[in-house]
Amino acid sequence: MHPAAHAAPAAPTPSTLQPTTPPVDLQVLLQQAVQQALAAHQTTSNGTSPANGQAPEAKTPAVPEGWCALHQIAMERRSNARGSWWSHWLASDKRYCKGKA
After folding, report:
1. Can you spell out the DSSP letters for 24-59?
2. Confidence of residue 98 (pLDDT cuts 50, 70, 90)
3. How far apart are CA 10 and CA 17, in angstroms?
4. 91, 97 in Cβ contact below 8 A?
């Protein structure tokens, strides 16, 4: 027998390989996964799914009036002839904070 008859078939070169599926953009896959996770969270949190099929927008919780979100402390209502406002004393800085950055 000829020695070439017993040799393994040659592997295809990379240039001859054809992908079985078209390439998919990784960003698209990530966006789809995030949308599915948000939709699943919406469904489990209130028992319903969004009507338009899109994930709900995230909303920041409202800070109660008279609460300083910066320092996590209750403020006092103050007023003078010009109006009223909420503030609290910062002993470390020796100043008042109105709860705004």
Report:
1. --HHHHHHHHHHHHHHHHHHHHHS---TTSSPPPP-
2. very high
3. 13
4. no
Length of the chain: 101
Determine the Cα–Cα distance for residues 53 and 49; give it in Å rounded to an integer.
Answer: 7
Measured CA to CA, the distance from residue 52 to residue 96 in angstroms comes to 46
pTM beyond 0.85, yes or no: no
CA 69 and chain centroid, separation? 21
Give the pLDDT confidence of 40-96 residue by residue, as tens digits. 777 655 655 555 556 556 677 787 899 999 999 999 999 999 999 999 999 999 999
